[in-house]
Amino acid sequence: MSEAPTVRDNPELDELVESYPEALKAFIAFGGQFDFTSAAGYLGSELFSFMMPAIFLVASVGNGAGSIAGEEERGTLDLLLSVPLSRARIALEKLGAMCLEIAALGVVLWLALWVGARAFSMDISAGHLAAATALLVVLAIAYGAIAFMLAGATGRKGLAVGVTVALAVAAYLVNSLAGLVEGLEPFQKVTPFYHYAASDPLHQGLDLWHTLFLLAVGAAASAVGVFQFGRRDVGSSS
């Protein structure tokens, strides 16, 4: 096994991590793995457990909330609605643009990780990197759709961003701490973050069930958002 030079052949790192408090390990694990000396364990803990989800959610939530509500707050939505297109089509095109943006970010991330893995002779397949990146993209799109739903219902970008971020943080905490707090266990498996990490994609590849769950969350939120935008009096939220 040959990994990044700073962690390669250094089992003391795993021993150090195992000595961490359980609460801390709950936040740095990705798919339940703490093997810092393997490529999958290192990338999971350093990138996919928190950093990349945070970056992708910033992009998706801001886009989802601002695609309609941002134009409404700037006073440009009336002009957009004056074109001979239905509200549903406008909303779906906005959602499609968000999905394409997040997917493009995912492709860039996958390419960067694949090139980096080859450069440092890290023992991880392109397919497993793609699986983890795909789940990250679907997670971000799900929360972007939730932000879009809230923005479509209220016309307020700040509110949509704030509530969505609060929901994401709550879901992250529930998933991370469920193994330590017995009362959280019943709620863990309904959090998007559980389905994002539970299949351990960096070691096991893509899992259809977990992927479908995240897709269903995004689709449901999108449908509600399109419906709410279609029926709301746009001027009433100004």
Number of domains: 1
Largest sheet: none
The end-to-end distance, rounded to whole angstroms, is: 59 Å
> What portion of residues is helical?
over 70%
Write a concise synopsis of the structure shown.
The protein has 238 residues and is mostly helical. The protein has 13 helices and no strands.
Topology:
Blueprint: H1 12-18, H2 22-28, H3 39-48, H4 51-66, H5 69-74, H6 77-81, H7 87-119, H8 126-154, H9 157-177, H10 185-188, H11 192-197, H12 201-204, H13 208-231
Helix pairs in contact: 4-7, 4-8, 4-9, 7-8, 7-13, 8-9, 8-13
Protein described:
The protein is built from 13 helices and no strands. With 238 residues, it is mainly α. The protein has one domain. Helix 4 packs antiparallel against helix 7 (87-119) and helix 8 (126-154) packs across helix 9. The longest helix is centred in the middle third of the chain and has 33 residues, at 87-119. The protein is globular, with a radius of gyration of 20 Å. The N and C termini lie far apart (59 Å).
Summarize this structure as a short list of keywords or feature phrases.
mainly alpha; 238 residues; single chain
